[in-house]
Amino acid sequence: MSNIHQHNEKQDFAGMKKFRLADFFNQWWNEYLKKPKEPVLPWQLKAVNALRVCRTGAFGIEVYACESCGEIKETLYSCKNRFCPTCSWKDTMLWAEKTADKMLNVPHKHVIFTLPHQVLGLVKRNQALLYNALMRAAADTLLQWTEHKFGIRPGLVMVLHTFGEKKNYHVHVHIILSWGGLDIKDKSLKNIDIKHVPFIFLRKKFRWLFEQQIVELYEKKKLQHNFANKTALKSWFKTINRKPWNIRIEGTINNPQDVIRYIGRYSKRCCLSEYKITEMQGENISFRYKDYKDKDENNKAKEKILSLHYRDFFPLLLQHVPLPNFRMVRYYGVYARRDLIPEDYISGNQILDKEVENETKKMEACTAYQPMHCQHCNQSMAYQYSEISYYRSWKQGKPKDKITWQKNTAKHMENEAA
């Protein structure tokens, strides 16, 4: 017998997700395309199409068999698109474990640089350019400060986010900053020992570095804008600088497992987790969000429900589809070249974070992706062959027909035996 595993089960939030985003797109996307509220860009259309057919067999399958009882299991290929909640979630967990295994053996801090909302109109017209400017300005702010103040070069892991809790356009960058680093002179490992962080200085430094890049882009005529001249641009700067720019530095993270948790939470995940979807009723979808302006007695943001019609929901979500070939996760400082860090300075993933382990188990249960295990004989299953869709075959340069795959598999097994 054959089992094909698809994501069509609904389970309660205690362990699993109830709803699939793909189901809502499958139900209303074609209707939305007849009269879209906002223009649908090519990469957005590609992301939606990938999400809709993820793990349905459209990308191909792999076939495994139990050598004892003959049980056959077919597993479905995923889309691997960064917009897909399931694929981005699994990728995030694996990436977090790999990254945390190469962190400096010093405390770390979670730092957030946020662009003021007055800038977002210009950012939307120049997304790739100003996303790059934001990440470069944030990195240089921290690197120049630590080098001047402490004489060290820290490590930074940076993740760009374009969404807020309500999925509005909210551009900010999350940073895992090593609270210590390599001494610039003797390359020894040193911690940062400071009681008060100079927020006023860092805010002004960040703002100045970001605005200087805008000026540079303007002078090189690479910036799309409505400024009459350079004087108008500088006048605009004065307007957006009336309020201090937002930088938040959270408490020190001392344990490696906590670093993993923070990295996993803010890294490559999709803008909307399917665990937050509470209802899909007719043309409306509802999801949970945190309202940071409304806090409880413990000063924690209250959780609320937002319900949207698909004509409002789709354009809200699509604005967060990652740009083609744009690196949302970047490394600066000593983390840009981790092969040059002495092994004695690396903490290593000594204790697997329970949260990462639990999330991985949820992922496996949710996707039923256990191709190597026979439920009847309780033993490993052997790979047989793959059937790949025409698109995936052309993309990977692999043969698509089943017979060729069987021949190649048999040849591979003979080589392994030899």
Distance between the termini: 32 Å
Low-confidence stretches: 1-15, 349-356, 362-369, 390-416
What would you call the shape? globular
Integer average pLDDT: 82
Structural class: alpha+beta
Radius of gyration from the alpha-carbon trace, in angstroms: 24 Å
Major β-sheet annotation:
5 strands, antiparallel
- Going across the biggest sheet, name each strand in turn: 10-4-7-6-14
Number of domains: 2
Helix count, DSSP H or I runs of 4 or more residues: 12
Please bin the fraction of helical residues: 25-40%
Series of H and E elements: EHHEEHEHHEEEEEHHEHEEEHEHEHH
By DSSP, the count of extended strands is 15
Would you write up a description of this structure?
With 418 residues, the chain is an alpha+beta fold. It folds into 2 domains: 135 residues, no CATH class; 195 residues, no CATH class. 39% of the residues lie in helices and 23% in strands. It has 12 helices and 15 strands. It has a 5-stranded antiparallel β-sheet with strand order 10-4-7-6-14, sandwiched between helices. The chain has a 4-stranded mixed β-sheet with strand order 1-3-2-15. The longest helix is centred in the N-terminal third of the chain and has 24 residues. The N terminus and C terminus are likely disordered.
Short description:
The chain has 418 residues and is an alpha+beta fold. Helix content is 39%, strand content 23%.
Write the layout of secondary structure elements.
Blueprint: E1 2-4, H1 21-34, H2 42-53, E2 60-65, E3 72-76, H3 85-100, E4 108-114, H4 120-125, H5 127-150, E5 152-153, E6 155-163, E7 169-178, E8 180-183, E9 189-191, H6 199-219, H7 230-240, E10 246-253, H8 256-266, E11 277-281, E12 284-295, E13 301-309, H9 310-318, E14 329-333, H10 354-367, E15 382-388, H11 390-396, H12 402-417
Parallel strand pairs: 1-3
Antiparallel strand pairs: 2-3, 2-15, 4-7, 4-10, 5-8, 6-7, 6-14, 8-9, 11-12, 12-13
